[in-house]
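Lab notebook: predicted structure, single chain.

Context: the supervisor wants predicted structures on file for every construct in the current expression panel, including those that have not yet been purified. This is the next one on the list. No modifications to the sequence; it matches the entry in the shared construct table.
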Amino acid sequence: MSPRSDSGRSTAITRAGACAPWVRTRLRTAPGAACALGLLVLLTAFLAAAFPRAVDAYENKGLRHDLAVEDPRRSVLELTAPPPALGDEAKREAAVRGAALGAVHRKVLAGLPEPVRADASQSSYGIHTTEPIAAGEKWLPRPYGLDPELTYATPSDLPAHATLRDGAWPTVHGEVTAASTEVEAAVTEATAKALRFKVGSTIAVPTRGERPLTVRITGIVAPKLPKAAYWSSERLLRTPSLVAKPAKDPFYYWIAALLLPPDAAPALLATTGVPEPYWRIAPDADRLTALDVDRLRSRVASLESGPELLKLRALAGPAATLTTDLDEVLTGYDAMRSAISPVVAVAAVGIGAVAAVVLLMTGGLLAARRRSELALLRSRGGSLRGIGRRLLAETAVTTVPAAALGLLLAVAAIGRVRLWPAVVGAAAVAVLVCVALPLGTTLGHRIPQLHGARDDMMTARPSRRRTVAELTLLVLAVGAVAALRRRGTAADGGSDFLVSAAPVLVGLIAALVLARLYPLPLRLASRSVARLRGAVGFLSLARAGRASASGAPALLALLVALTTAAFGGSVLAGVADARDDAAVLATGADARISGEGDAIELPDRLVRDVRKAGGVREVAPVQIEYSVPLPSGDLGSDVKTTLVGVDPGTYARLARATGLGPFPADRLKATGAAPGKGTLPSKDRVLPVLASPSVAEQLGERPRAIKSLAGNFKVRVVGTVTRTPAVDNADFLVVDAASLTHRQTTTLLVTGGSADAKALRAATHRAGPTFFLQLRSEERAAFVDTPMQSGAERIYTAAIAAGAGYALLAVLLSLLQTAPERTALLARLRTMGLTRRQGRRLLGLEAMPQALLAAIGGLLVGWATIALLAPGVDLVQLALSSGPGSDTLDTAPLRADLWSLALPALGVVALAATVAAVQAWWAGRRGSITELRAGDTR
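Prediction complete. Output recorded below exactly as produced.
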C-alpha cells in the first residue's frame, strides 16, 4: 500500500472519528435548545400521526355504529327458497327438517365472500308460512270483530335466544310428517298477553287434507335480546301487531306468530300458509373498516344478483333469492362520510401549515443563535457540505427519536387502525426538521455577510422573486375560494386539497399584505411620538421598526393559526346553532302541549294550569287545522294547507323570540267587529292572513274564499313568511283566531327558559292520556352524536387548541429571537439613567405593534375567511344525522363565532405583554456589567 493511500485512509478515519465528538459536544453545550426542539418535534409528530388514526378510528366506529343501530329488517341478508317441489313426500319432508336446513346454513355462512361476515350467534334459519292463516277460536280477541291471523315458524336454536317463563319448550314426539295432526309451539310474552294465549291453548290450523293441524301451546318465552337480529329481523316473532283492513274506515285485527320446533317443519307443508325455507344472515360489523365499504357494497350486490348468488343457489336451490337493504345503509354512511371528510380536511391542512411554519421558525431561531459560530467555521475553511452534515447529524440525533416517540404515543392513544398513515405523518415531520434546519442554516452562509448590516422591515425592499411568489399565492388563494364558493367543500371522489387549503391561502396572502403595510403605520406613529418629550415611546417604536424582516414567518404563523382556529370554532358553533334551530322547529317554543294530531281541543283547566306553572313567561294559544283545501288556482290544482289561528299579540312575540317568521302583530288584525262565538261572519268580511310563499302564490292578491271546520270566510294575503312556530311544514295560513267562527285551542306554545318541566308534565297528565308535552331541551338532547360526528367535532376542538397553542408558540419564538438584543439595550439604557419601570414600558411597547398587528389582522382575516367560504360549507350532515327534527333543516350555514375569533387574538396580545414583562424583570435582576462585555456586538 502506498504512503498516499495510507495518508488518505488516516484522514478519513480522523474525519469519521471527529463526527461523534462534534455532536456530543454540541448537545452538551446547548442541552436546553436540543430538548426544546425535541419536545416541539415530539408534539408535532404526535399530532401528525394521531390525525389520520383519529380519522380512521371515527370512520370505522361510525360504520360499525350505523350497522349496529340499523333496523335488522334492513341490515340482515335473508336467503329464501320455494318449498320443495311435489313428488317424493319423504324427500320433501327431509329437506325442511332442522338438520337439512342447518347443513345449508353452515355452508352458506362458510361461503360468504369477504368482507361479508356473519354474526353466527344472531343468524337463524327455519321454515315459516308466508301467508297468515285466520284463527277461528272464539276465545281469541277481536277488536273489530275480525278473526286474528297467525303465522307459523320454526326458528333455529330457540332456547339459546329466549328464556322460558311458563310451561315447557316445544318438542316433537316421534317423527313429524306432513300428515301429522298435532304439534307443539311456544309464544312470546307479548303475544300471549295480546291474544290471551295460555299454556295448553290449542289452535286448529286448516290444511289441504281432511283433518286440521292442531297446534298446542306448551311454553311462554321471553326474548333475551329482543332488539337483536334474531328477533327483530321479523318482529312478528316477538311482538304481535294490529293490522288495518284496507277500507275507507279501517278495521283492525291481530296478527301474531307461533314458534314451532325445527323438526316440526314438515307439518307446515300441509297448511295453506305457503311455507318457505329461510336463512337469515346477521352481518358482523366488529372487524369492518371504512376501507371495506366499497368492497362490501360490491359483494352485497353480487349476492343479490351476481356470481355469488349462483353459488348460494347451488346450496339452497335453483330458485333461491337473497334480499337486503344493507347496500342502502352503506350508501347513507358514504354520504355522511363524504360530507364530513372535506370539512375535516380544512382543519388538517390549516394545522399542518401552522405546524410547518412554527418548525421553520424554530429552525430560524436556532440558526440565528449560531450565526457567528458558523461564520467563524466558514472563515476558517469549513465547507457548506461539511457544515451541513454536522448540522444534519446533531439535528437527527434529537429529531428522529422525538418523532419516533410521538408516533408510539399516537399508536398507543389510538389503536386498531392502519399504521402506515401515522408513520408517514411522523416521518414527514422528522424529514422537514432534518432537512429544513441544516439547509436553511447553511444557505445563509453561502457568501460572507457584512457585520452590522441592517435587515429590518423599515428598510427592506421586496425583490422581484418575492413579488412573483406573492402574486402566485394570490392567484391560488382566489382560485381556491372561488372553487369552494361555487361547488362546496366536497369534490368528486373525495376532498380537493386546493379547496381544503383555501383558509390557509387566504391567511397567507393577508400575512404578506400586512408585512408590506406594517412599516407605514410605524413611520406615522414614529413621527408623532418624536415630538413628545419622553424617550420611551420613540425608542419602542424605533425598536419595533428595526425588527428583522425575517419576522414575517411569525406573522404568517399567527394569521394562519388564528384563521384556522376561527374556522374550527365557527364549525362547532354552526353545528350547535343548527341543532338549536332544528329543536326550535320541532317544538315552536320552549314547550309545546297538544293533543293527537293537533286536532283535540285542550281543556280550559289545562290552559290555566300551564299559565300558573313556575318559570312560564308567556303562553300562546293556537288553533291548528290540517288539510284545509285552497281555492283552485289558474292551473286548477287541488292544493291543501294548514290553517293556524293565533292571538296576534302573543304569537308575534313568540315568532320574534324564536326567529321563525317574525311579523308585526297589527298586520293580522281584521277591520270591523268580530263575530260572536258560534255565529256566522259577514260574507263581505275579509280576514288578513300571513301565508307561506307557495300558499301566497296560490291565493294571489285578491280576496279568496276558504272553507274549513273553523268557519267559512274570505282571506287576503298581507304578508309572507317562510316559517312559523306552530307548524313545521312549508304550507300554512296564519289568521287571527278571534275572527274564526268555531274557535278552540288545540295547541299551547309555552315560552320561558326555566319553565318547570315537572309542573307541565303533571298538568298534561291530569288532562288525559290523549295530550302530550314536548320540551325544546329534550328535542335538542335527542340529537345524539354518532361516532363519526363526535369524532369530527373532537378533531375540530383539537384544531382550535392546537392552532391557539402554535400561535402562542410563534409569538414566543419571535420574541426569543430578539431577546439578547433587547437585554443588551436595557443594560446600555440603564447606564444612562433608565428606570426599571421605564424599561418594562419600553419592552412592552416594543412588543405591542407586531402583537396588535397579528391580533387585529387575525380577527379580520378569520372573519373574512369565514364570510368568503361560508356559502360553500354546509354543516347539515355534521350537525343532524339523528333526532326527530333531522329533516327539518335544508341547510346549516357556516357562521363566524365571536369567541373563536377573539380569544386566540387576545391570547397573542397577553402572551406578548407577559413575555416582555418577564424579560424586563429578569434583565433588571442581572447587572449591567454582565451584559456589557468588551467586544460584544449585540
